[in-house]
Write a structure and sequence with these properties.
Length: 134
């Protein structure tokens, strides 16, 4: 089963109150799942990695074997793809967790998208921060 994920991590302040937003779609574009959760006080980069981890777990729970992840965080995409080094120890741990989950799929691709193409994930992350039910 192929799934598309749109992910976003939000932090109001850096660090500050943080959250994740994830939208999963099937091949036809129908929404399979929308998710958001708060993370306490975290940096924006930690929130972006946590959003990726959420997407991987949720897609696996839905039975996905192939996952296309859209993120507006160029840093996250380039680090996970191995193009940028991860200098922060906390992010290195999150990247290792993501790598372990990625190995459970037959295919996982990450693509960088402009912020305006990631509005639903951003909306979900902000809803989580605002305490609005998703």
């Amino acid at each position: 089963m192929k799934v598309k994920a749109f992910i976003d991590g939000a932090s109001r302040g850096n660090p500050g109150p943080a959250s994740t937003g994830v939208q999963l779609l099937d091949d036809s574009g129908a929404v399979l799942k929308e998710h958001g959760r708060t993370l306490g006080v975290q940096t924006n980069n930690v929130a972006e990695y946590e959003a990726l981890l959420d997407a991987l777990r949720l897609a696996k729970d839905l039975g996905a074997t192939e996952l296309l992840v859209h993120s507006d965080s160029l840093l996250l995409v380039k680090q996970v793809q191995g193009e940028y080094r991860v200098k922060n120890a906390g992010l290195a741990l999150l990247k290792a967790k993501a790598a372990a989950l990625i190995r459970e799929f037959s295919v996982v691709k990450l693509v960088h998208v402009r912020r305006e193409l990631n509005k639903d994930a951003d909306r979900l992350a902000n809803m989580a921060l605002d305490g609005t039910p998703i």
